[in-house]
Amino acid sequence: MKFLLIMHMNPVLWDKLSEEEQQEVFDGHDRFQEIIRGSGEMVGTKALDVPTNTATVTVRDGAVQSVEGPYVPGESFLCGYYVVDVASKERAVELAALIPDAKLTAVEVREVVHDDGAE
Known about the structure:
- By secondary structure, this protein is α+β, with helices and mostly antiparallel strands.
- It has one domain: 2-Layer Sandwich (Alpha-Beta Plaits), CATH 3.30.70.1060.
- Helices cover 32% and strands 34% of the residues.
- The chain has four helices and six strands.
- It has helices spanning 11-16, 19-38, 89-96, 101-104, and strands at residues 2-9, 42-47, 55-60, 63-68, 77-85, 107-111.
- The strands form two sheets. Strands 2-5-1-6 form a four-stranded antiparallel β-sheet.
- The relative contact order is 0.32.
């Protein structure tokens, strides 16, 4: 079963961390990746750019509109994800709890319901 472990960032919370605490988050991701690579559960991971570098595209009545910024405004934003291939949702939740972001904001666990195998 494949799951997305979706990480959220809150820049207000992030900026309150010391440089050492921020480095601990990065180091925690390195450790997490070692765990899921070692177990064979890692499919992939991506980190995303900040919302200010986002273009949101809509099509209404055939007209394409592109605006700068995220679709959902707010403090928190989607900053990255892991794709894991695990035996159960329970295992995906267990892995999500190991991601440092779970201690700062949240990690969503969503099952992949369609996969074209391109990853």
